[in-house]
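Support reply, case 0932

Customer input (verbatim):
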Amino acid sequence: MNRPEDFRRLEAKARPVTEIVALLKIPALRVNGTELTGPCPLCGGKDRFNINLRTHAFLCRKCGIAGGDNIALVEQVAQMGFREALTWLQGDAPAEIDPAEAARRRARAEAVERRQAEATDRYRRQAIGDARAIWQRSVPAPGTLIAAYLATRGITADLLPVLPPALRFLPDHPYVKKIGRELVTLHRGPCMIAAIAPAAAVREGRPTATVDAVHQTWIDPAPPHGKAAIRHGEGSYPAKMVRGSKKGGAIRLATPSGADTLVMGEGIETTLSALVAQAVPGAAYWAGVDLGNMGGAGRPGERMSANPDLADEAAFLPPPWVRRLIYVMDGDSNPKTTRATLERGLRRAMALRPGLTGQIVHAGAGLDLNDVLTGKDGE
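Our regenerated output:
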């Protein structure tokens, strides 16, 4: 008995997408939360192909095949027309992917990927060049507004009499942001510049005069010299910004000779708070710039994972002399995400540096370590 086409369409769309994947012989897809993820059946793009298990929508971020249901999936993968795909979905015969079409798509996707990689590399080289130029223009921190700015954060001259060489100063530095298609200068003013040492120098534990990135903190020129207010139109922007390639790097604030412990906070002020409190006498104190840099990538296919992807060679890794790595966990961000990220970074370090031990120190719910130093925890 012939069924109306609209009923056939609804029936085809309602079939479990896992059945369609099996019939199309799409290999190596794995469950990733509410999606199937893996290589694209046409262009082969690794981990670029996703199918939503609930809606059946799919997309390859490399070659661009996309659709919203089972019929579209068969159309795209098996290179069928709508009616042919609908008819095929009523049976169980596996479809064959046209090798010539798959080869064309692979070539097209590879060309797109090459262009994207070239553009990314050009941007990275430009960003590193900008960071190095900013660092070269800056001046040593002593005698500048940096001491006043840190004092507003409770890091006073009696607690930190010598400012770290990794901190420098620019009296009139532009705050430039891309808005739409244009680069707009939203603010100019005094700025604390922090050197982010390159990943290779950090991992090897060697000194270097080169930076691959700088961390910038704009300071209010009016007393008490807190962070500058950056506004544009009706929007406000953070007074901190990184320029350059920060991945795997660190802001090395203090590295005493003979240290075997590294204390790392996310930000400069958090890490300096631990330093002036002498949380671990004789330890090195470095800022990790952000959580993503400290934790690195998680194991593929695992959301919010505390398990590291050990193939992520760009992630932060402490130098060989570190035998104890202490991460300071701020309590003013999502606790589950923050802890999983920090645990991931520690597990990576312990896996790649045999004998190293890792530890997380929590500042307290809703607080960072600088809040504790300044008494915002009520103590």
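We compared this against your earlier run and they match. Two observations from our side: The chain has a mean pLDDT of 88. Residues 99-137 form the longest helix (39 residues). Please reopen the case if you see a mismatch on your end.
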